[in-house]
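Lab meeting, item 3. Inverse folding demo.
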């Protein structure tokens, strides 16, 4: 009876293992002829193959790949020569120009969320559009190798660490969006090399330090957002070079000092300017009204201006007084005004 029970038990265990579903994209090989499946681990030298396409080597380092364990227990990709493995899929180094969550990357199927350093080998990439994919880790210094990039969107992930200075080597970028992450440190001055940018978004990214004067090199910018960071210091006068700006978000920081005279170059009809909730002070130039088109005339073209939560002193421009004052000026801390 006991032998019969043992035979039945072994039968069901065997059926269970054989019916286990292999992780999508895995080739089922774990080196030295060992099979990678959902029913256990391969016991090659110093290696444990998990059931989610990951491999832990002898140094307890996880590797996100549908790879194999070689005879030494080290990681070995199953991709062909000229390919790189990302998220359990093989991508051609020569032919891959787009990584897009709507086209060829399924974010929800990621086995590991760590930003893959192997991605920087795809040097022909023109587009990386992986916003809201739950990516973690930091941007590698080697991201500067992707000199063909024109569009880089990694917003609303869980990326951390500082912005690598090598980002300044991506001189063909027109869109750079890294908002909604948990970055640290300051904005590198090398960002001023990205003179083709039309969109720059670093909102809600935990950045500190000041706005580098090199930001004034980005003369093609139409949209710039650094809202809800920890930026301090004054607004650099070089911002006046950005005469193509239509939308500027600098609200929710700790910026201080007076508005530079050159700031008026940014102000014009149709522009949207958000400077509220900083520590800005001094007086608002009367020319603000002329540039912005805020004079209360029928059919006038108004820009959108938010300046509340600062320390601007009166007298305020007439156009602010004659329009919806709360909308433009909000509440000002005038305790240090003369």
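The presenter then showed the designed sequence:
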């Amino acid at each position: 009876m006991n032998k019969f029970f043992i035979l039945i038990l072994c039968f069901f265990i065997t059926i269970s293992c054989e019916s286990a579903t292999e992780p999508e994209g895995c080739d089922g090989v774990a080196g030295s002829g060992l099979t990678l499946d959902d029913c256990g681990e391969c016991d090659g030298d110093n290696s444990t193959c998990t059931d989610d396409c990951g491999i832990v080597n002898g140094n307890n380092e996880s590797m996100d790949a549908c790879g194999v364990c070689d005879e030494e227990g080290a990681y070995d990709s199953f991709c062909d020569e000229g390919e790189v493995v990302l998220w359990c899929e093989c991508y051609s180094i020569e032919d891959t120009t787009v990584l897009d969550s709507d086209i060829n990357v399924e974010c929800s199927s990621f086995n590991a969320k760590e930003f893959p350093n192997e991605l920087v080998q795809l040097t022909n990439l023109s587009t990386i559009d992986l916003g809201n994919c739950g990516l973690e880790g930091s941007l590698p210094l080697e991201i500067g190798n992707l000199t063909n990039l024109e569009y880089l969107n990694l917003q609303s992930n869980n990326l951390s660490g500082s912005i690598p200075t090598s980002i300044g080597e991506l001189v063909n970028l027109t869109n750079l969006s890294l908002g909604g992450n948990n970055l640290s440190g300051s904005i590198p001055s090398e960002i001023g090399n990205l003179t083709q940018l039309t969109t720059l978004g670093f909102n809600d990214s935990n950045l500190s330090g000041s706005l580098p004067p090199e930001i004034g090199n980005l003369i093609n910018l139409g949209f710039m957002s650094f809202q809800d960071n920890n930026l301090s210091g004054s607004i650099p006068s070089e911002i006046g070079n950005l005469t193509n700006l239509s939308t500027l978000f600098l609200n929710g920081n700790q910026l201080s000092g007076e508005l530079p005279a050159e700031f008026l170059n940014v102000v014009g009809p149709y522009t949207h300017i958000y400077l509220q909730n900083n520590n800005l002070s001094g007086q608002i130039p009367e020319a603000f009204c002329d540039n912005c088109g805020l004079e209360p005339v029928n059919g006038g073209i108004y820009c959108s201006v938010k300046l509340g939560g600062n320390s601007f002193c009166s007298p305020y421009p007439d156009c602010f007084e004659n329009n919806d004052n709360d909308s433009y000026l909000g509440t000002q801390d005038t305790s240090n005004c003369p």
